[in-house]
Design a protein that fits this description.
Elements (H helix, E strand, L loop, with lengths): L2 H14 L29 E5 L4 E6 L5 E9 L2 E4 L1 E10 L2 E9 L11 E8 L12 E3 L17 E8 L2 E6 L8 E12 L4 E11 L5 E5 L13 E9 L2 E2 L8 E3 L2
Antiparallel strand pairs: 1-2, 2-6, 3-4, 3-7, 5-6, 7-8, 9-10, 10-13, 11-12, 11-14, 14-15, 14-16
Length: 253
């Protein structure tokens, strides 16, 4: 796929918003209101927690004009942390970017005393000089790993008929704020006329342990985009289950 088509897919996806109640798309979170004084509020709203000894999760606001990085504050200075995984997640209707980083990459074992998010304007020549070239979060003291919720395991994906499956999972533990079934499947972008893989977040009702999903079986779907994948995600207290631990179960239509 050419870079032009890939860019068009991204633009199309970001413009869709929520396709339906409970359906997830990668929508950019709005910027802070223009009236907010920079001295009273950081340009990047973020929180952080330890996932384990080396991995840290940062949940932040997102302004798509900027390219972001996460740095750790150590006794000998500050250094950028290695990216592990990231995704958009919907928290009660508010889209946030969830990023996980590694503080131990390169053989370093010292834990950071704080984390800091920095955003650099990705295309500065395209913006008025009044638009900040660099934005920051406050220094973030990571919360304990106990605040990161645990996602239940998908136990089965059973075919109900040729076009439908039932996804089942173990009950969620720890009274999470939200349990979501994540589904990656072919999605048709009408603006550019192509099918491509796309990820949806389906929030499930409290206590549910299964959901029926429809398989996309259009003959025009290319072979490398036909697979459907399912995994679970949990949200609690503003944090998300470990993104690295997600193990999708994949089926072919």
């Amino acid at each position: 796929m050419t870079s032009r088509i890939a860019a068009a897919i991204t633009t199309c996806a970001l413009s869709l918003g929520a396709l339906a109640s409970g359906a997830g798309v990668a929508a950019a979170a709005p910027s802070a209101p223009a009236g907010d004084a920079p001295s009273l509020r950081p340009a990047v709203d973020a929180r952080a927690a330890a996932v384990d000894r080396c991995s840290y999760q940062v949940v932040r606001s997102h302004d798509s004009r900027y390219v972001y990085s996460v740095s750790g504050v150590f006794g000998d200075g500050t250094r950028e942390l290695t990216h592990q995984k990231e995704d958009y997640v919907r928290f009660s209707g508010d889209w946030r970017k969830v990023v996980q980083v590694d503080a131990c990459a390169g053989g370093r074992g010292q834990a950071p005393t704080a984390l800091r998010v920095t955003g650099k304007l990705g295309n500065p020549e395209g913006y008025d000089p009044s638009v900040p070239r660099t934005i920051h979060s406050n220094d973030l003291k990571p919360a304990a790993s106990s605040v990161i919720p645990k996602a239940p395991e998908v136990t089965s994906v059973d075919r109900l008929d040729a076009a439908n499956v039932r996804v089942a999972w173990k009950p969620a533990q720890g009274n999470p704020d939200q349990v979501a079934l994540m589904e990656r499947k072919p999605f048709y972008s009408s603006e550019i006329g192509v099918w491509h893989p796309y990820t949806f977040q389906w929030d499930v009702r409290a206590g549910a342990t299964s959901m029926d999903r429809k398989l996309e079986r259009d003959a025009d779907i290319p072979s490398d985009a036909r697979a459907h994948s399912y995994w679970m995600r949990v949200i609690k207290g503003g944090f998300v289950s470990d993104l690295r631990a997600e193990k999708p179960v994949t089926v072919e239509p």
